[in-house]
């Protein structure tokens, strides 16, 4: 029997720093997916400018979304990368993100502390367990990977797979479809990849599509996001990441 094909949708960088943009994306995905069939990646204190702690109004919003079925992932702590990198890590830090790969250069102890603090804060807010941990920009250094294996998080994700941190078992494989808004070149390349994905990735058992607050600033990206989600949702069921554990 063939495995059911599913769609995993997510909104990154959720928090009060980009509140209006996240609200816009939540409304858009709810429309395209027929309900709150997506995950949110929550940043506890985005760039040290928008702490969830003490923000009762935003905490209530997260709790309401969670009660409606949205899966909540811990998405780093600050999201900002302040480490000095060399070698492959330096390439990733320069070309795969713009100072956003917070967990690329952390020690195991520091990564573990931020993971645990983020988990406690978000779980206290939503009143239930978080769905897992996803590093900012999907970038993990050796320290983060070691900390993640001992963290107790049920799920983790990078650009190419979803896995169980405790065992390393891969639960889904294939590239995340996402968009980049910070330069014209990145906007064009991400739109081009999304157009290829709408043709070439339907064979995947698990398709993953992620959006970011910055996407809302570029109408062409929103059009591409609409077309891509619609294409995949017409061929497979929007599902929860937690379903991968049940499988």
UniProtKB/TrEMBL annotation:
<dbReference type="GO" id="GO:0005975">
    <property type="term" value="P:carbohydrate metabolic process"/>
</dbReference>
<dbReference type="InterPro" id="IPR011330">
    <property type="entry name" value="Glyco_hydro/deAcase_b/a-brl"/>
</dbReference>
<protein>
    <recommendedName>
        <fullName>DUF2334 domain-containing protein</fullName>
    </recommendedName>
</protein>
<dbReference type="Pfam" id="PF10096">
    <property type="entry name" value="DUF2334"/>
</dbReference>
<dbReference type="InterPro" id="IPR018763">
    <property type="entry name" value="DUF2334"/>
</dbReference>
């Amino acid at each position: 029997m063939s495995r059911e094909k599913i769609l995993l949708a997510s909104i990154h960088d959720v928090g009060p720093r980009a509140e209006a943009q996240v609200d816009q994306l939540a409304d858009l995905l709810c429309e395209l997916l027929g309900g709150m069939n997506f995950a949110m990646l929550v940043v506890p204190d985005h760039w040290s400018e928008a702490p969830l702690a003490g923000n009762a109004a935003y905490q209530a919003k997260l709790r309401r979304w969670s009660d409606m079925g949205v899966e909540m992932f811990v998405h780093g702590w600050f999201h900002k990368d302040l480490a000095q990198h060399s070698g492959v890590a330096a390439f990733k830090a320069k070309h795969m993100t713009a100072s956003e790969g917070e967990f690329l250069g952390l020690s195991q102890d520091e990564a573990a502390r931020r993971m645990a603090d983020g988990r406690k804060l978000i779980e206290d807010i939503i009143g239930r367990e978080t769905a897992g941990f996803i590093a900012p920009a999907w970038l993990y250094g050796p320290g983060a990977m070691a900390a993640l294996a001992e963290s107790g998080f049920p799920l983790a994700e990078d650009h190419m797979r979803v896995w169980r941190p405790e065992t390393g078992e891969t639960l889904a494989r294939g590239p995340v479809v996402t968009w980049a808004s910070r330069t014209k070149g990145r906007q064009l390349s991400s739109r081009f990849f999304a157009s290829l994905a709408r043709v070439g990735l339907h064979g995947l058992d698990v398709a993953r599509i992620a959006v970011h607050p910055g996407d809302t600033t570029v109408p062409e990206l929103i059009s591409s996001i609409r077309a891509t989600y619609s294409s995949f949702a017409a061929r497979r069921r929007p599902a929860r990441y937690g379903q991968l554990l049940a499988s």
